[in-house]
Specification:
Blueprint: E1 18-22, E2 38-47, E3 52-58, E4 75-79, E5 82-92, E6 97-107, E7 116-118, E8 122-126, H1 129-137, E9 148-150, E10 154-163, E11 170-176, E12 182-186, E13 197-203, E14 210-220, E15 223-234
Parallel strand pairs: 9-15
Antiparallel strand pairs: 1-4, 2-3, 2-5, 5-6, 7-10, 8-10, 10-13, 11-12, 11-14, 14-15
């Protein structure tokens, strides 16, 4: 992780390899409430055998600047099953190099013999009821790369879960406090945008600022899988 750009977010879709979506936005500087001056990121995605799947420049998600010649706010590409390396270089407003970052992600084999696969939840942040409705119906909505949100935001949580036998696992989600105690169950949203994905609604206005966890569980005939992600709510 760098001080200038938080971890990218990858979304896996499909059943042989994955459709990967990578986004980013400037993180807060250490010891300060101010965000960094990072304005663009160059991203190179490479398979373990050296094949380049993506090589380009990204603007921050929700960038206010749009138009011809402005980089896209996401990278999308198909990736085979296996380990994928993401190499990033972060640049400032004047084109100066601020930092570099490298990380690996694992693209699972959803057609393999694994009885149940639960992928990490995808978090989408919205700022109005209209935006929430639009994002709920948009399978291509851009995920939030940060795990820090304002109480004025409303989160849409997408949880991908697949079973090798073709059965749809039952997916549940619970909100936990900072010490891991259960606060409440989240109700799934009817009318999921695609097979294998369950959506949950999490308004942040009723919650106090602080650290929280989202604990998701997928249950099917072949067993159970669990995943937990942490996030922070600001004032």
């Amino acid at each position: 992780m760098t001080d200038h750009a938080p971890p990218a977010t990858a979304r896996h879709e499909g059943h042989s390899g994955g459709h990967i979506v990578v986004t980013w936005e400037p993180g807060r500087l250490p010891g300060s409430n101010a965000k960094s001056t990072a304005s663009s990121v160059t991203l190179k995605a490479t398979t373990k055998d050296g094949k380049v799947l993506y090589d380009g420049t990204l603007a921050p998600v929700r960038s206010a600047i749009e138009g011809p010649g402005i980089p896209a706010d996401r990278a999308e590409f198909e990736a085979p099953v296996g380990r994928l390396q993401l190499d990033m270089t972060i640049f400032g407003e004047r084109g100066e190099k601020l930092d570099i970052d490298a990380r690996d992600i694992e693209v699972p084999d959803l057609k393999g013999k694994t009885p149940l696969v639960l992928l990490p939840p995808v978090v989408l942040a919205t700022r109005s009821a209209r935006e929430f409705r639009n994002v709920t119906a948009d399978v291509d909505a851009v995920p939030a790369p940060l795990r820090e949100f304002s109480r004025t935001e409303r989160l849409l949580i997408r949880v991908p879960a697949y079973a090798s036998a073709g059965d749809n696992p039952r997916v549940s989600a619970r909100l936990l406090n900072r010490i891991g105690q259960s606060m409440r169950e989240l109700d799934p949203i009817p009318g999921d945008p695609r097979d294998g994905v369950t959506q949950f609604d999490l308004p942040l206005a009723p919650l106090a600022p602080g650290d929280y966890f989202l604990h998701v569980t997928a249950t099917g005939p072949s067993g159970k899988a669990e995943e937990r992600i942490g996030f922070k709510i600001t004032g």
